Amino acid sequence: MRTSCLWIILALSAISARAQAQCAIWDPAFPAASGTNGAVRSLCAFDDGSGPALFAAGGFSMIGGVPADAIARWDGASWTALYSNSGYQDQMQTLTVFDDGTGPALYVGGYFPHISVSYPIVAKWNGGMNWTNLPNLGPIVPAGSRVTALAVFDDGSGPALYAGGVFSTAGGVAALDIARWDGTSWSALGSGLGGPVLALTTFDDGSGPALYAGGSFTTAGGASAAHIARWDGTTWSALGSGMDGDVHALSGFVDGSGPALFAGGAFSTAGGVSAPNAARWNGSSWAAFGAPGSGFSGPVAAALVFDAGNGPELYVGGSFSSAGGVPALGVARWDGGSWSALGGGAPSGVAALCVFDDGSDGDADLYTGPAFASSSLAEWHGCGTTAFCFGDGSGAACPCANSGQAGHGCANSATNAGALLAASGTTRPDALTLTQSGELPSSLSIFLQGSAQLGVALPFGDGLRCIAGTLKRLYAKNASSGTVVAPLPGDPSIRAHSAALGDPIAPGSVRNYQVYYRDPDPAFCPSPQGNGFNVGNALRVVW
After folding, report:
1. Which one of 73, 100, 104, 538 is most buried, by most CB atoms within 10 A?
2. Where are the beta strands (DSSP E) in 308-381?
3. In this model, does residue 247 exceed pLDDT 90?
């Protein structure tokens, strides 16, 4: 007598495995809507209350055909200006989101001689054309004071906004090139830094979260620190012997070697090790990426971690033509073992990177800001929804040698093709719908969610299962003409239902999905291999 596991959810541990993305591509239409007449130095995603949007700042006065002095908002369809001053091109350098206790807001740093007569260089956007100027960082005379980096860091006393650049006072308080804004007032970070700050990020090297600064400085807290330093909330410390040139980009990331800090810029050595324009810090020493001495052919300006469907990877932008000896024009990707190009790259160079979901294709995409005038922003489509775990013979064998069609699950008693699981809609906001076709006409089907992937597919009834970790049975539905859909109108969304089942899905996290369904034909894939049910391929979704 055949037994059925269809109604049992097993709690299994798993080894994570990556799915190979098939859809990464530059959007050919987006550049036509995003040309600028100046460099875009910073990009930031923010919901101002009217929906998520991408904000761009730089040295332009026109973007996408819209007059916009140095800052503008992209809602997925069109650009709008946030500030206009009769064509004057202000110099906005950096953007970030910070909550000072009154709600999240967009902050911009730079040099704004026309926002007000007092020349503030940090401002808070309140919507529309309305700005609140934070107390000055300066002095204004001699000219040159500006903010070039912003970051949010909690030193143990609560989150605060940190501003780095070129200045000696902040709100009347002595603060050399870096200062802390708690929502009310500025304060210094010890005796500050001895030169311009160009990049800020937070990172935990194993000794606790800290703020890292990179730039053109050679001292931190009065002690030697060549172009990079660490602030733990109390004191500054150097990172080995630092770099022999400027640091422009910082990002924490994790790959097969463990957590590390990426530093990019215009240098040839890090910690005395040959590392042209890019190096990694593991908490105690510097190393190059890949083979010793391998690096970038030109300066690096931006870096961040993005999951385009292959798992979190490090993306780097700048003015280079190769990375690790591999041709890569303006932008490159590190998967933990090697560098690779993103299609034809970014011929105009890249000064800014940001991940943003415009709601058009169900996943977040990578946006690049051009380093030069008369260029365009560009959009690299991520693969937030990626298929894997096929029963087509390309991986593990189906239980009864019942291989299905390419990309489908194992064949069933109704069709040799097998079932195909696909997704449509968006993840943010959650309007994602899962549809599996190719089942038996009215099969009872279970939509299963897992937080991890199995390293090797396992036999599961007449098919293969690859999802594991925290498993949740989301929906039970009957197929109609061999197709089953969930959620249906009136059902809770996937994220809402997952949270109600005890597995909240944070933005940026990954969940995996498979649908298994009744196939009771005793002559098809009989015991002990089969078990009265089958399963389609799996989907990996980045939320």
Report:
1. 538
2. 312-318, 322-323, 326-327, 331-334, 339-341, 350-356, 365-370, 375-376, 378-381
3. yes
